[in-house]
Write a structure and sequence with these properties.
Elements lengths: L1 H9 L8 E6 L11 E6 L4 H14 L3 E4 L5 E3 L4 E7 L6 E4 L2 E5 L4 H10 L2 E2 L11 H7 L2 E2 L2 E2 L4 E7 L5 E5 L11 H5 L2 E8 L1 E2 L2 H18 L6 E4 L9 H7 L10 E3 L6 E4 L5 H19 L8 E3 L6
Parallel strand pairs: 2-5, 3-5, 4-18
Antiparallel strand pairs: 1-2, 6-7, 7-13, 8-14, 9-10, 11-12, 11-13, 15-17, 16-17
Length: 306
């Protein structure tokens, strides 16, 4: 009854059609894994998102933010409380050499719009599958570029529902780290500073990076992307490859034979399979090379109880 009461209260904030009870999270994650959310809410405006977060804080309800679900593994038991999905907050606009993007906008789409408008600086992100909110939280990067290279500022919500604007310095962006993740802020929007470029060079760079990504990554299978952070002085994928782990796994979760840094869902993997495969990789690499692989993906939710 408590969940239904929460849903009834939330229906005063958002369109009731955007509230789902006991919603499977498999369709919202790139791994196609995970259990159900007690309540799944899709705000359509930043004001709605703010009101939801404030309500959850006032009622002491756990809340999890979900963007494109590209860097997240949801356990089989699902997520208690409220999962707030920002996919409808996806506005992107160009203002001179700057780009404004809401949290739910896909990073790939921001990169495309920058390219169409002859702006350079965002090409590195042309293959990052996540949302702007997730990219901000982890200071996403690829092919020599990072979000911190181009960010101006970011508007976030605190866990209490207070809206604040963080400057580049205040964001404390490091390798796969930020104040957003540390404080568990909810990203609303970000502004990026780019430069006018030469269209042919922009297009050529994007084509080159797209080819590299498609030829080297197992995009034909569901996965969480790069599972592990790069250990100092090493490459995670190389360590895993040299450990002979490609093609190994638990259940239908498997270390990709195409790129050892990826763990794929071959079709019927459970989140438990995926997480056990992660642990297996960490243990073997630690035993073989003495290197502890730190997770880049975020594991959330509860284990399935029998």
């Amino acid at each position: 009854m408590t969940t239904q009461r929460w849903a009834n209260d939330l229906a005063q904030i958002v369109n009731p059609n955007n509230i789902k009870l006991n919603e499977s999270l498999k369709k919202y994650t790139m791994t196609k894994l995970g259990g159900n959310a007690d309540i799944f809410v899709l705000p359509e405006t930043e004001e709605e998102a703010t009101a939801i977060v404030k309500y959850a804080h006032e009622q002491n309800i756990p809340i999890l933010m979900l963007g494109n679900g590209s860097n997240m593994v949801v356990r089989d038991g699902g997520v208690r409380g409220i999962v707030i999905c920002f996919q409808n907050l996806d506005e992107i606009r160009v203002d001179g050499n700057q780009i404004y993007a809401q949290s739910g906008a896909l990073v790939i789409n921001v990169s495309k719009l920058a390219a169409i408008n002859g702006l350079t600086g965002f090409e590195f992100a042309c293959g990052i599958p996540g949302s702007v909110g997730g990219a901000m939280a982890m200071n996403a990067g690829a092919y020599g570029g990072e979000i911190k290279d181009i960010i101006i500022d970011c508007t976030v919500l605190t866990k209490e529902g207070e809206r604040i604007v963080l400057t580049k310095d205040e964001l404390e962006l490091e390798y796969r780290k930020s104040i957003i993740a540390k404080k568990e802020y909810f990203v609303l929007s970000s502004r990026f500073q780019l430069e006018q470029g030469i269209q042919e060079e922009i297009d050529a760079k994007i084509a080159d990076l797209t080819f590299k990504r498609e030829s080297k990554q197992p995009l034909e299978y569901p996965s969480a992307g790069s599972v592990f952070k790069r250990p100092p002085g090493y490459f995670a994928g190389k360590l895993i490859q040299d450990s002979g782990l490609q093609g190994k796994g638990v259940g239908d979760a498997e270390v990709s034979t195409k790129h050892a840094g990826f763990i794929i869902n071959k079709g019927n993997a459970t989140a438990t399979d995926y997480i056990e495969t992660i642990k297996m990789v960490q243990n073997v690499v630690k035993d073989k090379f003495g290197v502890e692989l730190e997770l880049e993906v975020k594991i959330v939710g509860e284990d399935l109880t029998t």
